[in-house]
Design brief:
Elements lengths: L1 E5 L7 H15 L3 E8 L5 H9 L21 E7 L12 E4 L2 H8 L7 E6 L9 H8 L5 E3 L2 H11 L5 E2 L21 E6 L7 H11 L7 E6 L13 E5 L3 H9 L3 E4 L8 H8 L4 E3 L5 H5 L4 E3 L5 H12 L3 H14 L5 H18 L8 H19 L1
Parallel strand pairs: 1-2, 1-4, 2-3, 4-5, 5-6, 6-7, 8-9, 8-11, 9-10, 11-12, 12-13
Helix pairs in contact: 1-12, 3-4, 6-10
Length: about 375
């Protein structure tokens, strides 16, 4: 198949990691994979003023690092902002929208760009005008979702049955850690995000409460952006900016508990990554957390309850050594048995079903468009220099 992924401006988020994994694995299976993203738009005057005055940062445009870097699978960054249009893309068998805005762009593409699929990793209500978001959920092309809650949302709110429910996996070759003792001092970790739906404020508050009983409790935090004055980190926090895979693995393995405080989540990849590193998880019932933690290796706590999260932090960090080791081993066992190869099998099969059920349009030869891509890349390189 010729497969096109239409991305938003890429970054180091979990959603982009998943897309990079599927794109690279499909390429390895012999498919012609093309991934494209528009240039990030320039900030408005109001956004610049707010960033400088309230967030104390300068919102300049830049090429951000992403999980596509170093894959050997080029991500074609267009020399213009959104939307992505026909002339940006090769003809293909299937074109995959990967975000609510990209679903709008894909809906306008000509049939020659491929059978249309929406890979719906979340219901992005925190980012989108609700009318436009819901309109993308009603678009008449198949949807692949990650979790049963998204399947139920499509059924109950939009009367749509997803093409497939394909949970994420975790690369246990990359994310792993040998059996270990609990650390001294006890250590907890989380992901930093200023977005309210991520619930980082809940995790921060839980650590502050837990330190009343565990004054030496260490806090490890990873973030894609520096902490903002509106959401500061507690004293004695070990913060890592834009951790890449091996560095992120080391942070997970350095923790006795990983905190996941999301108010809403498409999936929650850090849960799997932490557990693959033998780190128990305390999570709210968001995304895939209920499905994952019912296998063991962690605890669910109510949404917006830093007190409950703090109690679980103290309990787990105070377990006898053998009890903590068993919980750690359970965390690792809970994520074994379902691999990215399994997920890619299901993703590939879903795309093939869509292609088979769609009236085919003659495809233009790939080399002609590749010439246009190379000219576009040369233009972009000139703009960036």
């Amino acid at each position: 198949m010729r497969v096109t992924f239409v991305l938003p401006p890429p970054n180091l988020s979990g959603g982009i990691r998943v897309l990079a994994i599927y794109a690279e694995r499909l390429r390895r299976r012999g498919h012609a994979v093309f991934a494209v993203a528009p240039m990030e738009r320039a900030p408005t005057v109001r956004e610049m003023a707010r960033a400088v005055l309230k967030q104390r940062r300068w919102p300049f445009r830049r090429k951000r690092p992403s999980h596509f870097d170093g894959l050997g699978l080029p991500l074609h960054r267009l020399p213009h902002p959104a939307p992505v249009i026909d002339s940006d893309l090769p003809d293909a068998d299937v074109v995959v929208a990967t975000w609510w805005e990209t679903a709008e762009w894909v809906s306008r593409l000509s049939p020659a760009k491929g059978a249309k699929v929406h890979f719906m990793q979340d219901y992005e209500v925190w980012f989108a005008p609700i009318e436009r978001l819901d309109a993308t959920c009603r678009l008449p092309f198949p949807k692949i979702v990650l979790t049963h809650w998204m399947r139920d949302l499509l059924r109950e709110k939009f009367g749509r049955e997803p093409l497939a429910v394909i949970p994420n996996s975790v690369d246990t070759w990359l994310f792993n850690a040998p059996p270990r003792s609990r650390h001294s001092p006890a250590t907890v970790g989380t992901m930093y995000s200023p977005s309210a739906y991520k619930g980082c404020d809940v995790c921060i508050r839980a650590v502050e409460i837990a330190r009343r009983e565990l004054p030496a409790l260490r806090f490890r935090v990873v973030g894609n952006s520096r902490p903002l004055p509106s959401l500061p980190l507690p004293r004695s926090t070990d913060f890592t900016l834009q951790a890449r895979d091996r560095q992120l693995r080391d942070v997970y393995a350095a923790c006795d508990v990983w905190l996941f405080g999301s108010r809403q989540e498409g999936f929650g990849l850090p849960i799997l990554e932490a557990m693959a590193c033998s780190t128990p998880v305390i999570a709210t019932p968001a995304g895939a957390a209920p499905d994952i933690l019912k296998k063991g290796g962690g605890m669910l706590v109510p949404h917006d309850s830093p007190e409950e999260m703090a109690r679980e932090i103290v309990r787990i960090c105070s377990l006898p050594e053998l009890a903590w080791r068993e919980l750690s081993a359970n965390a690792r066992r809970a994520v074994e048995g379902y691999t990215w190869d399994d997920a890619t099998d299901r993703f590939e099969e879903a795309l093939q079903r869509v292609v088979a059920s769609t009236e085919r349009v003659p495809l233009s030869p790939l080399p002609e468009h590749q010439d246009r891509i190379e000219r576009s890349d040369a233009l972009r390189a000139g703009l960036e220099t």
